[in-house]
Amino acid sequence: MFFCEERHEQSDVGTEPPGGSEEVVSKWRMRDRMKTTSVALILCLNIGVDPPDVLKISPCARMQCWINPLSMQAQKALDCIGKALQAQYERWQPRAKYRLQLDPTVEDVKKLCASCRRNAKNERVLLHYNGHGVPRPTVNGEVWVFNKSYTQYIPLSVYDLQAWVGKPAIYVFDCSGAGVVVNTFLQLAQHGNLGSLGAPGAGQETILLAACGADELLPQSAELPADVFSSCLTTPIKIALRWFCQRSILRGDGISMDLIDKIPGQENNRKTPLGELNWIFTAITDTIAWNVLPQPLFQRLFRQDLLVASLFRNFLLAERIMRANNCTPISCPALPPTYQHPMWHAWDMAVEICLLQLPSLVAGDPNVEFAPSPFFTEQLTAFEVWLEHGSELKPPPEQLPIVLQVLLSQSHRLRALVLLGRFLDMGPWAVDLALSVGIFPYVLKLLQTTAPDLRQILVFIWTKILALDRSCQLDLVKDNGHVYFIRFLDSPQVPSEERAMAAFVLAAITDGHPKGQTVCAQSGLMQICLGHLPHAASPAGSPLFVRWLCLCVGKLWENFKSLQGEAFASGAAEAIAPLLAHPIPDVRAAAVYALGALIYVPPASDGSARAAGVNELDRAAAERTIACQILPGISDASPPVRVETAVALGRLACVHSMLFRSAAAWWRRGRSPRPSSQGGFSSDGGAASPGVHSRSHMHAPAFGTLGYRDPSVDNLAAAAGNGGREPGPESPPHPHSPHPHSPHPHSGNTFASADAARVGGGLYVHLLEQLVELAQDPSPRVAGVAQKALTATGIEPLLGSPRAGGSSLFSPGSASTLGGTPPASAHSRLAPNTPGSAGAVAGRMSGVPPSRTRSHSSLGSGAQPSFPPAFADQPESPKAGGGTGAGSDGKEPDGDVHAPLRAVLPKSHIFAWSCEHFSRSLLEPANGHAGGRARKETLKLTEHLASIDMDESAAPACMLMHPIAPTAAIADDRGVVRVWDYQSGAVLNRFSAGMPGRSVASLSLVNDLDDALLMTGGADGSVRVWRNYALQGEETLVTALRALPLPSAAHGEQRGGTSDASGVVSWQQQSGCLYASGDTQPVPLLRVWDMTRELCLESLQMQSPGTCLTAEGALLMAGAADGAVLSFDLRTPARLLSVVQTHQHPVVSILLQPGQTSNLVVTGSVNGEMKFCDLRNAAKPFYTTEVQRPSAGPGGGRPTLSALVAHKYAPVIASGSSERAIKLWDLEGNNVASIRYYNSFLGQRIGAVRSLAFHPNSLLLAAGSNDSIATVYSGEMSGAGAGSHRR
């Protein structure tokens, strides 16, 4: 299976990372956290006097805050109750400021509210009102207080009360008919007098909790306290146990109310009975709320404010108890009913298990120990069961909040973390769900532990969290969490795949976060990563680990100038450079990114004027070295590698912009012929500049090339490594001076000179040429990035400009974003009047005359790219002593010269794309093939005949039949691919193959028996792979590469009367190799690409341009334009086995072992000649035939053979030619049948045959002709031969 890696699952259509350009951050994090800092407690009890509107029974509830007010003097009881209520609230919020008002007046309440608001400022105020000693609220929305002499009840308007308290606030009304107050608040909110009542705006939010409805009275049962609602809110465990005992059969087992008060332990100690019950209660109420409330409401009420969360958690208990006593507590915002939730049964069981142990525990028997409840163990088991059967499409696990609580227990922590990790591995939706529950602060605090058994699962969990939301980097840096992951990364005994997760976490911490970069650098992260690189990159290492080590150091030193200096000094670039030859494309792309990140792009705050000291000159030389190291990535088969190469060159172009623009001007002006240092001339009449060889054949095709290396790139690296110096005159004239032919004692390698790099024929011209080539890459993603990189040089490309016809690749002067004369301050690193600066070099640049510019053969038609006129006619350089473009005082102009270039600087997306790996399931293997894509079903085919008229005068250039589905892919000579269902006659899809106006040269199926991908090869050597090619409008580009260098400007007429020579591409599914050959300049090449690693394995020279290719096992055969057939065995050191001059004209096709006939080779040439050979003696064909005898009359030439194909299993060969006939041959060379007419009533004669294709399995033949008609033929072939031939 090929092209099934993660990097191939995203469509290659643009430059944006998965999910768009803006990072999606989940909504779990509360943006406006609140605290309740002031609490006002108002108690209107009037002990000893019952309110007139309430008739109390006898006995009735009397307890207030668990104190009987009749057991002591009224005033003392009032004080004790007030202090007890305050103590109960302090249990939930000890840091708030509490103020009491006992039996107050209106003025007392007003002062209390004003004081609380003044202390709280913009935080929340809680007002608790107990009206058990006053009448019920009035229908006008008034509650009651007292006059100063306690002789009258005084009404207090709710409107005034809320005006004094302000917002945000939470109100607790514990009185009969409390629902009236809630209704009044709702009416005020409707009339706009209150703001948002229970609405999401936390700053203006008002929350209400009321004990009962508008027409309900509080319970008066003597078994309950009078303030049962307040007791539920402030002492939930005590009231819950008492209420349970009232209803439980355990009362007969010695469990009494008095015994409940003797439960040992403390509520904040989970190892004691009382603490464990409180722990279980918290977990159950959290679980109920999370399962019944909408997620935003749950976060507002249960995660925003600790006191509000506690009150609402306890409110769920109040609803259960009070509904059992015919009261309905009310809240605003309203909650759905929860009093019958199944989790309450789990609470009852936990209480029962605890109470059964109580008698023996209270008795003080030293042999009796408290047995912890199995509640959490059972809930973890239930969660584990859900993990076995749950999914995103099913309801979420209701035990998730319980897992959060279990993290607090050391005995259950490891199991809970493992189960949590399995849940997070189910996808980003699971991570977001866990974060919304509130898992984040728990796992953040666990980073402070030193338990070795938790390290791996904690790193895994944090990997999943940061893969979803990288804003957590702030929290990790704040709590020094990065140290935990650095230690884990530096643990050799840990598996490499797990350390790769730690590297990802550290890369996420430093991603665009200067403080994170600083603290990680101070902790020695760079040295640790570089130290682990050699082993990780070895054959025994992990590609994932080495990839993330590169990304980690790249993020660490990106735009971190001081650390970049340390990296250069410590040889970091040299340590990473060998990874450019790594067999895994993802590693190569990460290595290119890491090296490109060493190029410092000044931020806006840096300004533009910097001293050009020795450090800056060394930095510029080091950056040129990096450019030379990554340059072979331009011809890499993997689009991500080419993208990162273009991004890195874009960074270099931004900071060396003046030098790039000088190179552009030199390139524009240097067009006169000149002798080559190697004695030859370029294709446009000019010779290649020394050291600047023709890119078509001198480039290393990939980083991992075997036995092939671009000497110009070697020269580049060596030159830049020498500091970029070259012997030359001290002060040659400016290159744009009026004396273009001044002498130039220039020697050897132009790339070796930093000075020459600033003018034509040097490194910057070479880089500019490479960016131009990348801007025309077959991959839209690569081309888009390269076009931005070109713009970053100060040259604006025409994004849609075609190559052919001599069209300009760059906009005219007025369209340039940086039109006009480029200021010298646009260059970076070098200030005027310093050694090596533009000012000092201004007089030296014309030492290389314009005529020394190399010809750029890739531009097609011999046309040079035109640049803005501002670059074509530069003003004469200033005299010595003033920098180019500088002011009269020799200083650079003020302003940020990098700002316009930085705005268009291409962005790297390798990090964002790589992060997608950790968003996938890492614990479970992928289902099925190719990332879970389904296998297509086999269809039974029947014999049939069908035709399609493609109209639009588009001739079928090549065809391909699917081995299973009844479809045929047809590519025409205009670059359009049609997918045709030849059973139904419908065109399933029609799309452009990315080669507008040019013919598609070949079609191949990748993974043909699975979820097949369509590979299209262009005549220009470009290759594209498409997924979903048969679905209307859903075709997506998987990958694209340039298998051959760009076509030369001048093609010879080498194919015997056919069109210009073109590239040919052949795909071998068995080995995963792609073979490409064509008319490359100056020598024809045959390239072998390993598409598993996306590397060019071989770049072999041929004696003549290749015209056809075929491969079987390790044997590769190539037909040439001069009629020769070349055989290669890629396993042998020599590679080339034989060269046989089989024909005198270009070879059309080589049929290797047709019909599975061993050692049979059939070749055909354009003049209609077919030769049958034995593979073991290919130099002596045993039979020769012709598609048709030439006519004897004048002008009767031999018909041109245009197509020759053979069936893989059946002993039949088909040929097509210009004589408007398809001939069928057996394997002995006998013409057994001919097809001359379409299946129509009129018997229309077929056109000149353009393409042929057999079905891989069935006896079906597809044919395309120049009259825009494609046909499928099928049926029994009578007399087709015996399937073997005689020797």
TrEMBL record:
Residues 1-22, 669-753, 803-898 are annotated as: Disordered. It comes from the Eukaryota. WD repeats lie at residues 1010-1026, 1213-1235. Residues 808-819 have a biased composition (Polar residues). Residues 669-681 have a biased composition (Low complexity). Residues 33-186 form the Raptor N-terminal CASPase-like domain. GO terms for biological process: cellular response to amino acid stimulus; cellular response to starvation; positive regulation of cell growth; regulation of autophagy; TOR signaling. Keywords: Repeat, WD repeat. Residues 1-11, 889-898 have a biased composition (Basic and acidic residues). GO terms for cellular component: cytoplasm; TORC1 complex. Belongs to the WD repeat RAPTOR family. This is Raptor N-terminal CASPase-like domain-containing protein.
